[in-house]
Design a protein that fits this description.
The structure is a homodimer. Chain A is an alpha/beta fold and about 350 residues long. In chain A, strands 9-8-7-10-6-11-14-13 form an eight-stranded mixed sheet, sandwiched between helices. A five-stranded mixed sheet of chain A has the order 2-1-3-4-5, sandwiched between helices.
Chain lengths: ~350, ~350
Amino acid sequence: MGEDPDDDERFMREALAEGRKGLGATSPNPPVGALVVLGGRIVGRGWHARAGEAHAERRAIADAVRQVGADAIRGATLYVTLEPCSTHGRTPPCTDAILESGFARVVVSAQDPNPAHAGAGFGLLREAGIEVRSGVLEPEGRELIRFFARHVLSGMPWVLAKTAATLDGRTTLGPGMSPWISNEAAREDVQAWRRQCDAILVGGETLRRDNPALTLRGRWAEGRVQPWRVVLSQSGDLPRTYRLFQDEHSARTLVHEGISLRESLARLGSLGVAAVMLESGGRLLAHALEQGLVDEVILYLAPILGGGATRLLPVDGIVARLESPEIVTIGDNVRIRGRIAPGAPTA
Amino acid sequence: MGEDPDDDERFMREALAEGRKGLGATSPNPPVGALVVLGGRIVGRGWHARAGEAHAERRAIADAVRQVGADAIRGATLYVTLEPCSTHGRTPPCTDAILESGFARVVVSAQDPNPAHAGAGFGLLREAGIEVRSGVLEPEGRELIRFFARHVLSGMPWVLAKTAATLDGRTTLGPGMSPWISNEAAREDVQAWRRQCDAILVGGETLRRDNPALTLRGRWAEGRVQPWRVVLSQSGDLPRTYRLFQDEHSARTLVHEGISLRESLARLGSLGVAAVMLESGGRLLAHALEQGLVDEVILYLAPILGGGATRLLPVDGIVARLESPEIVTIGDNVRIRGRIAPGAPTA
């Protein structure tokens, strides 16, 4: 019948890996992964690929039916990274599919972050006599849906501020030197994070200085719509000769003129954007931190002291702390990533 | 008779660990470690503790004689991290002791860095029929004597610049906030590096702003003379009320007034100082980098964005790269350490 509860974490880790495949492609829906497990063996896998398409649970069930047949999965265990939906959206509720399939046990990582729905799916399943276990690898499950949770609760997107700097906080090396501070592997790593986001936002200043492409490239672009490229400009004085307006993805470029960053983010939220990568220069980053609009920071540091006059944070007096930062070496670079700790970022 | 050459690295690693015990205490001599190995077993250990006292080889031999007797070590292997001296200094040459003891084999990590002596010890031992192998874990062996090598070859000390900063290169958090940027474990780690140095150098500005103690504390002070505390001041306007002039180690405080950093370092070199930790503020650090006077950087970064106006490197246009940086996490802090890559540090 049900699986050994000791195996729950192992299977949930697999389900989380399935769910991550959808990161960046599912908004405004959350990325979700699911597994069907029968007698200790994974017989079905599924992940949510795109809003409007089948949910992870239905895909895992369909996969299991293909592999072992509908009768065989009666009494099996379903692992799913997020509480199954119990209401009609663009697709019928997943709880229906779970009940029809005859699962004996459902194991979930994170609850539905929407207080209006939280626990409703569990209630329905339990009423039908299904054993439900929730909260398995919950921190990882919540991490997977952090963009969605922010968006569904506030209408605003999650903001990841990404920047690269020298050890003393400079973002350029100076005239006549390489425009790149971080190493090639670190720049490749940026693609993996961009791919998780629905939009990339820069200020007009960055556009004029760097004329960036802000695209997913090579394998990172496979199976993905390019993220929105958003230019926030007070003046709107942006000649249409820049790459963003000329390249094959120009339909994915938005100019937000004469509005605040907060308004720009709200506008993106209403477009269904759940995650924005802020790749701006220092002045806009400082403003975003001051306004409490940054949720998470990804910083690449190169082993260099000194450089040009351009600074990561050109404003004094802001103090924002990263919580439990994740510190990873990428060749001779370091990536430091963490959420901004709660509380006013200003000293 | 001799040991299996495959074991040489393993034993040399042990000898290096012995040698490191002397770091910071042996100047102007190098730290050296030695082992006597007999039939695959370590029967003697020694390290050089202080100039004027017995060298590591003689201490390891004496230890082995105590443990197994003088006759037993005939035909044994001696591991030593640095080529044994062959000339009379304050103590008789170690090659004499090696010959008298009847070793069959001598395994060495680093050659004597002084070209006048390099290889002389090996020649003497080989002439006497001893098998000599050199260059085992040579990078580690050279790392252990980098301070000594700089000093013996140039008369100048090795300079380790140590600093702590936020992720955007600020060295203070600002008014009303903690004076400490790095965490407690990182500040404890600083003690381990100070202990390796013969002197700590700051500018008058740092003295006036922080009134620091610049001492080895607690267990780090055990068995050690405190490093010199050197204040480089153009004006010399340093009221004697500061801790450095008042505490129990005031005899270890030097004021270098009205001279350049280069002159100050030369003066310390002539006092037998082989390693200086530069714990100055940004202006003196920038000057040291510009002048090519920094050999190695140890940087502690705290997971903070923003802070006060005081910067790690307040001068634009200097670009110094760290070679093969060592990146270590200390709780939520990161320590980045590396040598300044050769070449002019200015862009």
